[in-house]
5'-nucleotidase domain-containing protein 1 isoform X3
Amino acid sequence: MLITSSHSDYCKLLGTYILGKDFADLFDIVITNALKPGFFSHFPSQRPFHTLENDEEQEELPSLDKPGWYSQGNAAHLYELLKKMTSKPEPKVVYFGDSMHSDIFPAHHYSNWETVLILEELRGQEVEKAEKAEPLEKRGKYEEPKVKSLNSLSNKWGSYFIDSVSRRGNAEDSLVYTWSSRRISTYSTIAIPSLEVIAELPLDYKFTRFSTNSSKTAGYYPLVHYSLYSQDTDSKIIFTEK
């Protein structure tokens, strides 16, 4: 299924450009103008689904009876449809999103869905300027995923994941996980830099969750292990790429 806060006409424009004119056939359910995060947090009476005609919202629907293209809506009625479609009392949902505010937190907190955060701050060398990158036709079919060190520094903001806390006197500074880093490990099942890094993995590949041993880093793919107990950060980073 596809759930987007974009209106249907804009969704069609982008979907057609990216995936082709028949992009909607890739999905059983398309929901536009979903008004996330309210899609997850609001009651069905507050956010009913609407049918669409020529990209204009039509009648309100008391429930969802079948797959299709809808506007607005709520996660509760969607989940009831998923039960009907899968013939399972508690179907499992894996939800991909790139916004902690609109996607990951509400889907995890209100709907208890598995969440995959697409986090551009994890990107490594593939985000170099285009003129520095090797031409696409010269690259291999599949390049090993790259990921930045968790303590990689922005020239302006420092690390997105790790911060340094000053101590009084001559005591060494302490390294701590940032607020953003803690939210990622709390509300995401895993975090990846892009869809491309997992696209060619086998379907039975087993990812490690953030919830494994209450780890703050286990859910990053490619895997990144980081220890906070030393000021010598470079020597405490271990990468495991599979």
Remarks:
- Helices lie at 8-19, 38-41, 75-86, 100-109, 179-187, 196-199.
- The radius of gyration is 21 Å.
- The longest helix spans residues 8-19.
